[in-house]
Amino acid sequence: MHGGCVASRSADSRTGNGSPSAVDAVSLAIIEQLQEDGRRPYAAIGKAVGLSEAAVRQRVQKLLDQGVMQIVAVTDPLTVGFRRQAMVGINVEGDLDPVAEALSAMAECEYVVMTAGSFDLMVEIVCEDDDHLLETINKRIRTLPGVRSTESFVYLKLKKQTYMWGTR
Amino acid sequence: MHGGCVASRSADSRTGNGSPSAVDAVSLAIIEQLQEDGRRPYAAIGKAVGLSEAAVRQRVQKLLDQGVMQIVAVTDPLTVGFRRQAMVGINVEGDLDPVAEALSAMAECEYVVMTAGSFDLMVEIVCEDDDHLLETINKRIRTLPGVRSTESFVYLKLKKQTYMWGTR
DNA sequence: TTGGATGCGACTGAATCCGAAGTTGCGGGC
DNA sequence: GCCCGCAACTTCGGATTCAGTCGCATCCAA
């Protein structure tokens, strides 16, 4: 499967206004449950949010189909053999989109975002070692047409990483 | 619950050498399966990786217990009511740790990482609106003792967000 | 060789998932 | 006012899956 890009999928459902296919309070509560444990049984979620098991199942399916949420395993890259990570700020000449698309297509890019400020794009890179990191930045990113300059921030230590959006 | 920080948990199991309680190839294959679909049945995973259902279940449980992996729902913050996100680069005077700790304790900070380069810390912030974002950066981050300067990159559009570590 | 620990497959009852069908509530067209 | 369609919910029964537990093979150290 090629799946796995929340942003682009949800962008589809967002065409038009700024407030997408609004997620109501109940669905938010369901998401919170699944943020605590992605395999929690539907019946348990239903009890927590006041819905039947089937209703929860239908809502979860819809949230997944719409790309509002995905249920996945996440790991600490360091424990699975990726020893170098970096954030790369990029300045682009002309249209951002083709560059952003090209970056998104690269397996090493975990995270691609367009920003306002002194960078046009910020990209998180996950690599196996220094050589891999160097090659990715120097040979693959900096040579993309439109890329004017880059600045790299190699990760020294990951202090916090959460997935609790909506839980506040 | 307060759970949910992969980094700190896996750091515990990482004390000692650089290569932790090494994840073998079969467990990696299991992780890959769960990165595609966090609710995939154990039997289906077993068929894919060549193990019995029970063996997969035991391995998954161990991976979860060890903090190597967690199975969670992830969302695009924009679709669940958080309309402003930013990456903030921070320069610190003196020891980084207390500042990193303070940032990690803030609910708005999704992601805190120490970096090499022209920033000492990079932090991802998720806020409900502009006021919230301004207050967080200006009143809560910039006033932390030790923070010398900050630079903000407000997100315009999230292009890619994956959790496919290890899938390559 | 022996003892202990570990990982695996097989089995079983209980819990869960899943699809189909029926119910309710609401708004638009006639 | 009435009917129709739509969307979300509930109920229900059968198939599947989950969570223990058991015995067995392997590996490693004593």
List keywords for this structure.
disordered N terminus, Arc Repressor Mutant, subunit A, alpha+beta, elongated, DNA-binding, DNA-binding (chains A, B), 168 residues, Tscrpt_reg_AsnC-like (chains A, B), transcription (chains A, B), Alpha-Beta Plaits, 4-stranded antiparallel β-sheet, 2 domains, homodimer
3D structure, described in words:
2 copies of one chain form a homodimer. By secondary structure, chain A is an alpha+beta fold. Chain A has 2 domains: 3-73, Winged helix-like DNA-binding domain superfamily/Winged helix DNA-binding domain (Arc Repressor Mutant, subunit A, Orthogonal Bundle); 78-154, Alpha-Beta Plaits (2-Layer Sandwich). Helix content of chain A is 37%, strand content 27%. Chain A contains 6 helices and 5 strands, in the order ααααββαββαβ. The first copy, chain A, has a 4-stranded antiparallel β-sheet with strand order 3-4-2-5. In chain A, strand 3 (109-116) and strand 4 (121-127) form a beta hairpin. In chain A, helix 2 (25-36) crosses helix 3 and helix 3 (42-49) crosses helix 4 (53-66). Chain A is elongated. Mean pLDDT of chain A is 86; it is low at 1-20. At the A-B interface, helix 1, helix 2, strand 1, strand 2 and helix 5 of A face helix 1, helix 2, strand 1, strand 2 and helix 5 of B. The structure holds a DNA duplex (30 and 30 nucleotides).
